[in-house]
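To close the section, here is one more complete example, presented without commentary so you can practise reading it yourself. The ligand is adenosine-5'-diphosphate.
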Amino acid sequence: MNPELRELAQRYAGALHDYLVGRGEAALQEAYDLGRKALGQGLGVHDLATIQHRALLKALLTARTRKEASRTIRGASKFFVESLLAFEMSHRRSQEVNAALRESEQRYRGLVDTARDVIYTLSTDGTIKSLNPAFETITGWSRTEWIGKRFSPLVHPDDLPRAAELHRAVLEGQVPPKFELGILTKSGAWIPGEFVATPLVQDARVVGVLGVARDITDRKRAAEALRHLNEGLEEEVKRIAHALHDEAGQLLASVHIGLAEIARDLPSHTAQRLEDVRGLLDKIEEQLRHLSHELRPTILDDLGLRPALEFLADGVSRRTGLKIAVEGAPGKRLPAPTETALYRIVQEALTNVTKHAQATGVSIRFTRSRRLLRCVVQDNGVGFDVSAVSARRGARGLGLTGIQERLHAIGGTLDIVAAPRNGTELIINVPVEADSAESDSPRG
Amino acid sequence: MGSALIGDEIRVSIDCDAAIVTARQKGRALASQCGFPSTDLAVIATAISELARNIVRYAVHGEIILRLLDDNGKRGVEVVAVDEGPGIPDLALAMQDGYSTSGGLGLGLPGTRRLMDEFEIVSDFGKGTTVTVRRWKR
Ligand SMILES: Nc1ncnc2c1ncn2[C@@H]1O[C@H](COP(=O)(O)OP(=O)(O)O)[C@@H](O)[C@H]1O
Ligand SMILES: Nc1ncnc2c1ncn2[C@@H]1O[C@H](COP(=O)(O)OP(=O)(O)O)[C@@H](O)[C@H]1O
Ligand SMILES: [Mg+2]
Ligand SMILES: [Mg+2]
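Output:
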């Protein structure tokens, strides 16, 4: 998204949130204003639909029950209608004046033609009805080679069942979340595409699918590079943790022995002072041990995420007095990169709570459905203005960005629900393999 | 006009953006009383927004008056925007799509005319502007 669109999307999501929590007419007026602004910026209904779609998904993440979710959907569609009215006002013009219709069509065409994403329509049976020029730039195929043909040969065979399922869902009027499919290029290579598909409605009937696809090769590469980097860092941290634990520990032990020997040869009043020093050394040793474990808890490898987090929570609790509850279970063992990422994320989240929140309690809650692991870190502190912090750009801390990047690398998402004086909630969603008969045993 | 006014009229004084929200909210409530579907309520709120916005921007203050109508069993809502601002020197020009003296979208007046079933505008240059719009229940 370009910055203008992103700003609009952010304000839209904020206003939708306001509306859903009961800000009524003022929020609806804001919806209308945003629609007007979009119109003024030359955006189309389609852009607004994308914005609405994202904001709705975000709002749905915080819905706790099915009833709440359907209330959210109903509220959001009322809100959407409000924002579309600006377009409705200008649209009627085209019904009145034919020339204007052509002009506005051309303008829409212009948008489609110059878009950098592929915009396509499919009929109900999966025949490709239209493609914009971006299709040619991205895939190398010419459009005439594909218009009128089925879309299926373009999709990677592994992804076909899902593509078909999604096609059916959209025809039933659903708007599924963004999804990824491998796409065949003319050169025979596959590229990763990120898709948003919506029902194509005519006279109140779904007549096909309207979709937007983006080439995410670069993003995938960046995520991959980042994952390598993180893995490298993890190795380094492991090494330091071991050095702290084993080598520093052993050195300290020999200092102890040396001191004991010296103490024997000293007059007793001086020996007492040495005793004090040894007391301090004990404390250092204890701290080193705890730090090295938190740095890279062997529990994480041996016993898994939950015990490791309990250990971490215990340490933070003792240092800061914060009450920390770990609830729910992450389920069966997850791939090592996922467990590490989640451990680091919760660690950073707890650091933020101690640094910024002035909270008395934090809860770390896991819920796992078949393909999704959700981890919510919630504190009862002072909260913060999320949009103001995200807008800080340069001057912004690395913590939240780091969390986002770690999640990106494992295909997860972060949502922050916070308001000044209302506590902070980080909602982390990570895709996982469907729970299978994988064993609970330690990893080698 | 053969349409009777039902009940009292509602007047909202318009001088700032917060007042626009109030007028929208009252208009929506009034129209929903007489059973307009929710998309129509949004349409009425939009018309109120545009007319009230023009008052704030061009006349500084004025009033939105809301009424329920009954025309031989056909029910409707009337929105009147009145101000004693500078008035509009060339109405034909102001009604054109895209015409704006403030660098705006120039969509308010022509757009409102398209959204609503009836639209009347009276403006005396130097004396003020009155826009009356109606929407009938289908
Ligand atoms: N749990 C929290 N409670 C209150 N404010 C928070 C919390 N987490 C983050 N913040 C706010 O978000 C900002 C950005 O956090 P982060 O990216 O971790 O950077 P840093 O912690 O280095 O400032 C913080 O400066 C703080 O204002
Ligand atoms: N209440 C009013 N008083 C004076 N001038 C007005 C008023 N309403 C509209 N106008 C004039 O008519 C023009 C067109 O109005 P409108 O269609 O709402 O577009 P915009 O507000 O975007 O300029 C305005 O630019 C202004 O010059
Ligand atoms: Mg931080
Ligand atoms: Mg206007």
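Once you have examined the tokens, check your reading against these statements. The CA atoms of residues 60 and 121 of chain A lie 27 Å apart. Chain A touches chain B through 21 residues (CB under 8 Å).
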